[in-house]
UniProtKB/TrEMBL annotation:
Family: Belongs to the krueppel C2H2-type zinc-finger protein family.
Subcellular location as annotated: Nucleus
MF-aspect GO terms: DNA binding; identical protein binding; zinc ion binding
SMART domains for this protein: ZnF_C2H2 (SM00355)
Protein name per Swiss-Prot or TrEMBL: Zinc finger protein 154
Listed InterPro entries: Krueppel_C2H2_ZnFinger (IPR050826), Znf_C2H2_sf (IPR036236), Znf_C2H2_type (IPR013087)
């Protein structure tokens, strides 16, 4: 059977099997096995729909409803890359993804001229130009935004490649690069 670390979780789980629904909606009388289900239901009476679909802007009362809805976009392949077949969750994500294939980098850093595929990447990069950046490479003087990015950057100088592909043995400086590579197998 299933195990639980808290007694309250076990009690909530038991209610599913016995059909016990101790939480009643004051608006319509509908009953629920747990408090969180009741609270989610009550939003339907208030007209609250705080969870928006990133693909079509449709709103939902719960994250569960939103997740169920988002599968429609994936199943229809509405945001599938025609180049590699990868399915994305929104049109904006597909636009950014396609730049991998086209090589388009429309966001340019005004400080150094380096170009980026996504505005988010440019904004992250621009932090490296800030005066007094806390993480500076002792080898080349480059300023970085975090200790983790400094560690990865320093591997350029040391040649260290600690992440190895178990399938082909190719090594990488960053785990993210290994993950991207493994998709090619």
């Amino acid at each position: 059977g299933k195990s639980f670390s808290r007694g309250s979780s076990l009690n909530r789980h038991r209610r599913v099997h016995v059909g016990e629904k101790p939480f009643a909606c004051s608006g319509c009388g509908k009953r629920f096995p747990c408090d969180s289900s009741l609270k989610s239901h009550q939003k339907t009476h208030l007209g609250e729909k705080p969870y928006k679909c990133p693909s079509c802007e449709k709103s939902f009362t719960s994250t569960k409803s939103l997740r169920k809805h988002c599968k429609i976009h994936l199943e229809n392949g509405a945001y599938r890359c025609s180049e590699c077949g990868k399915t994305l969750t929104s049109n904006s994500a597909l636009i950014i993804h396609r730049r991998i294939h086209t090589g388009e980098r429309p966001y340019s850093c005004p400080e150094c001229g380096k170009n980026f595929m996504a505005k988010k990447s440019l904004n992250k990069h621009r932090k490296s130009h800030m005066e007094g950046a806390a993480f500076t490479c002792p080898e080349c003087g480059k300023n970085l935004t975090s200790n983790s990015t400094l560690i990865i950057h320093r591997r350029i100088h040391t040649g260290e490649r600690p992440y190895q592909c178990p399938e082909c043995g190719k090594s990488f400086m960053a785990n993210k690069s290994l993950s991207k590579h493994r998709k090619s197998h």
